[in-house]
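Appendix B, record 7
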Amino acid sequence: PSLAMGVVVELPTGNPKQVLNEGKWGGSLGTGLNIGLSFVATKKILSMFSLSADISAKYRGRYTNVADAVVVPAPLITLGAEGELNFNPISLIAEVYWTSFREYKIADVEQAGTAGTTLNTVYGLRVNLGNLRIKAGVDLSMGEATFRPYNYMIFGEISMVLNDVK
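Structure tokens (predicted):
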């Protein structure tokens, strides 16, 4: 099997109280900064099929919502699995992720009933161009609506393999 570590950096640049192009650019840069680590193990099962398992943790930074309340979201712990059918250079992918989170705080007061879990399934394509990977698809969030951040999300992702140790 191969092992990988990833670093996640999400830098929200929007201000929920302003519309696009209102005020100074970057006025809320860094507010709501999310950072995390991910560890992935992958095993090729057949010549064209591989399975991966991963665990990740993400710290989510505080932000001010539209009601001027300071929100402190809880860190996320995620467990996942991915299957990839490789037709080099294009692959079909299917993923499932379970995420757990504790209660978050508003103005330093813990909000009862905000802890929970979500289950997401992801379907898409990955194009492998040497060390560059381009992935696009749809992410479907399932489970109780209270804890889902969205019903579905269409996404695109670009990643690069920095070092391939064999």
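Remarks on this record: Confidence is low (pLDDT under 50) at residues 19-23, 25-29. The CA atoms of residues 92 and 120 lie 17 Å apart.
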